[in-house]
Amino acid sequence: MYAEQRHQLILDELRQSGRVSVTELAAKYNVATETIRRDLDHLGTLRALRRVHGGAIISPIGVSEPDLLTRLRTNTAAKHRIGQAAARLLDGRPEATIVIDAGSTTGSLVPHLPAGAGPIVTDALAIAQAVLDRGHEVYILPGHLRELSHAAVGSSTVDTLRGYHPDIVFLGCNGMDDAGFTTPDPLEAAVKTAMVAQSELCVMLADSSKAGTHHFASFAPLNAIDVLVSDTGLSPAYVKHLQNQGIEVICV
Fold first, then answer.
1. Would you say 120 and 137 are in contact if contact means Cβ atoms under 8 Å apart?
2. Which of 143, 136, 137 is nearest to 192 (CA)?
């Protein structure tokens, strides 16, 4: 079992019972207690749970927002696979106009963009620079840059987006549950909502740690997203639930 899969199972159990024990989880998944402690420490760093003596308890308001550098160092292997799989959605779309949302998972798409893809619109300086370095035509959205996510936000960002009609948008999120896709900051949520509204095809890039968590600001209901690209840590039941909402789910 991959660590990401075990993390998702731990979170599923935590949501059901409200508390998990290191020794019980180690016995259940047939791994060392030190492995479970590392799992819980990792999930605690993401604020997906609260560490207590001997185990963990559920975090009352979901995951708080880590900064971009922390996210760039988290679940890197899964994000690499997600980026590769998302890029394959551009096969047969040589002239597609593209929006790439700010984020570490969406950023993993950039190295796999096919030659000639674009023009590309983004709200992230790092993504704009990476896209430009690969020789693609790029438009960077105006606005105020958030310190935590390095995403451009504000009325000028949203107004500029309303003048574009891209073929496909690649989005990131901080949480996804039955309430839809969420992020901590309302201004960033407004930008993401505009991206969804203006695009023909909406693709969400989200590793399995985002499943079942929620944040302050919703930006899209589940059925507003056409494709979710995630990792194999998503449980089959959750995949089926998303498919029932009309989402094509790709797990890599």
1. yes
2. 143
